[in-house]
Amino acid sequence: MTAPHIVDPAGQLGEALAEASPDLMRQLLQTMINALLSADADAVVGAEWGQPTPDRIAQRNGYRQRPLDTRVGTIDVAIPKLRSGSSYFPEWLLERRKRAESALITVVADCYLAGVSTRRMDKLVKTLGINNLSKSQVSRMAAELDEHVDEFRHRPLDAAGPFTFVAADALTMKVREGGRVINAVVLVATGVNGDGHREVLGLRVATSETGAAWNEFFADLVARGLGGVKLVTSDAHQGLKEAIAANLPGAGWQRCRTHYSANLMSVCPKSMWPAVKAMLHSVYDQPDANSVNAQFDRLIDYTAEHLPEVADHLGGAREDILAFTAFDKDVWTQIWSNNPAERLNREIRRRTDAVGIFPNRAAIVRLVGAVLAEQTDEWAEGRRYLGLEVLARCRLTTIPDTTTGKEIPEHPLALSA
């Protein structure tokens, strides 16, 4: 005898709320899904349960129970069965031989790419109420994530450009190679696109932060369509500076003020650093480019008298740390340091610290790529990082011609609305 409808969504909701059960969300989700499955089966059959009608094409024949993993735990799904000659399977909810909710993929993939054992992985995901996790399930989820990350890493950049401002940085990760743990470097670049939003332009895993690694990284970005770059902000790594000059001719370079402050502190007597630091910060507090340069002159005069080594250090870095003054005052805070990139790095670290040692480089690409792709989506949906009008003004900035010594104005490229 066919089982009658035993699900009363309104009644179950009222009872659960009245009892304030700790498993309230799990019970509600199970009730809702089972009700939807029953209604979906009725549509396949052509009639509601127990209703005689000439349009009916099959008969209901009870239920079969299947577990479904969700973010609120594993719930028991009652899939309606049909009599011989017909079949029903809710592919909109379940995939055959796979019962993991799509939104769970990133959680499981984080564990997978850490190279942890299936047993440890089960322990981690049980915090979500999941009963067990098979190796084949994890492999399929990771494959889907790999495809997404690969598309993100190799997407064309020309349509989103020009990228007026770019920032580059590197992070160190531990990875197993050749039976030992070594340090690998993740090279990351972000930029402000033609619509004023930030984007992650690319990432690359290298053995070490060398000039060759940075050159390959920027060459790939240019090949994918990176163009219109007016300024690149980074630390003072020599190989990075050379790669910028080789691949982005005409682009200026801004030495990160935060990194430079740390470099300057290393040559300054500890007792004098508070005074020097205060004067250096006062340089950045000035209202316009002329005032910035005038205050920098006063800083050099002061240190030349008391701290000649510090004065020499400041004089040698002047053009690099004040490159931001060539652009509109409204963008100074966004381009004079790598602090925005450091915030992105902290988000990456939040995820990678849970992993510790990666099993291979592909695992680094998988996790870091997923984090960066997600962040790019969030930036695209948020407010503009820089307004279109200020971007237009920045693109009018003069570019020095190294062959004649003259400055040639570059006309702004078209802006998207």
How would you describe this structure to a colleague?
By secondary structure, the protein is of the alpha/beta class. The protein folds into 2 domains: 1-97, no CATH class; 160-357 and 375-409. 46% of the residues lie in helices and 17% in strands. The protein has 15 helices and 10 strands. Strands 3, 4, 5, 6, 7 and 8 form a 6-stranded mixed beta sheet that branches. Strands 1-2 form a two-stranded antiparallel ribbon. A two-stranded antiparallel ribbon has the order 9-10. Strand 9 (398-400) and strand 10 (407-409) form a beta hairpin. Helix 1 (9-19) runs antiparallel to helix 2 (24-45). The longest helix is centred in the first third of the chain and has 22 residues, at 24-45. It is elongated and about 100 Å long. Mean pLDDT is 79; it is low at 96-110, 112-117 and 401-417.
